[in-house]
Each structure stands twice: as structure tokens, then as C-alpha cells.
Amino acid sequence: MRGATNLTFRRSSSRAAKPGARGRKPTLGEVVRPLPRTFKGKLIPGNDAHRVETFWEGKYEVVGLWFDSLVVADCPYVFSCLVIYHPKYKKPWVLLTDIQAGAETIFLLYRCRWPVESLPQTGKQLLGGHRSFVHSETCTYRLPELCLLAASISQYLSATSPAVATGFWDRNPMPTPGRFACALRGAIMPDFDTLSGVSARVRRKASVHVHLPKGILGHRRQRREAKTPSLTGN
């Protein structure tokens, strides 16, 4: 997982800090600060890395600094911190992991996680899933499933269809779900009878729904029972 650049950890209790000349002996591990930071105009230096690894990604030399045997408060897990310095990025990456692997493997694994966020972003932001609210226990997991399904279909159609420019300023359009959604908003939907001629399973449901409450009024809410006040007296 990605961590903040100003995170501070401690070594595990098996590696407690060195006792000082006065006071009780420390029971917690020494403080580990992977990156330096500034606090109230003063520079707080970072700790030296426990080990350093370098690898090449194409023409770029990437440096990884390892900080091992780390813990945080109220967490029983022991993990490692990997600080990645890549020439393509202005700020270093602070990656937290419990996987016993090299710096290049951790770097590539985190890079592979980026496309995972594309489906939720498409379903929530582009298709309007963030504006939908449900209250039923069944709908709380059906709505995310529907958003992910619609996002998958949208990404597939946008990748297989020609790229559509959003305006005259879009000179090099890419086949993205956002541009595909903009093109659908301006399209004219065909008549329902035309769709029923394509497949016999598509038909208009002849049900009466005018009398049914819509939107927030359609939620089945139970009125709270009024509590009878207790009578006290002499």
C-alpha cells in the first residue's frame, strides 16, 4: 500500500532503542523516519536505510531504500517500508508491504494496481453511481455490482469503438470511457419497438406503476412506535 511521505514508524519490540544515561530503560523500538521533513522551520533528518537496492526500468535507474521490522501502534503486524526514487516522478514513493521480495518486484506489483481503480472510477464518476443511494440490505451490494458491470461494458465498448473527440480542442482523442459517455449523451436513443425486433426476449413490460410512489417516497419505512410516558405521582 502507498504511505504518506511524513510517516513515522518504530522498530519491533525485539529491537528496542538503546538505553540512555538516565531514566527507565526503553521498551519500545527506536523511531524510524524514512524521509526527512520540516517542522516549524526546522529540518528533521531521516534515518539511514537498512539496505539499498537498485534496478533499471528501461533507461531509468531506480533506487529503493528498505526499512525492515517496522510496527505501528495498535497493530500486531510487522512490515517493511520501501522508499522508491524514480527519475520520472518528482516525489519518492513510500510503499508498505509484508511481502518478502525484491524492490523491483514490489515496484512492479504496485504499478499493476493502478488499472484496478479504473472500473470503480468509471462506474461512480462517469456513469453516475455516486449519485445513487439505496437503503435496502439487498440493494447495498446490488448497486456496486451493477456499477461495476456497467463500467466493464462501458470500457469494452469504448476500447472497441472509434475514438470520438469531445470538441474541436480534442485533436488526438483516445478511446476512453469518458469520451464514450459524452458521445452517448448526445446520441438519440432508438425506439423500443426497434429493439424488440432484434431479440424476442426484449419486450415492454405492461405493468401499471403510476400509483406507486417514486424516489425517496418509495422506500418502505416503518414508523416508530410512540412510547407511552410513565405516570408517576403520589
Descriptive overview:
The chain is of the alpha+beta class and 234 residues long. Helices cover 25% and strands 18% of the residues. It contains five helices and eight strands; from the N terminus they run ββββββββααααα. Strand 5 (51-57) and strand 6 form a beta hairpin. The longest helix is centred in the middle third of the chain and has 22 residues, at 139-160. It is extended, with a radius of gyration of 29 Å. The N and C termini lie far apart (67 Å). The mean pLDDT is 82.
Characteristic key phrases:
extended, alpha+beta, 5 helices, 6-stranded antiparallel beta sheet, about 20% strand, two-stranded antiparallel ribbon, about 230 residues
What is this structure's SSE topology?
Blueprint: E1 9-11, E2 31-32, E3 37-39, E4 42-44, E5 51-57, E6 60-71, E7 79-85, E8 93-97, H1 103-113, H2 118-126, H3 139-160, H4 177-185, H5 192-198
Antiparallel strand pairs: 1-2, 1-6, 3-4, 5-6, 6-7, 7-8
Helix pairs in contact: 2-3, 3-4
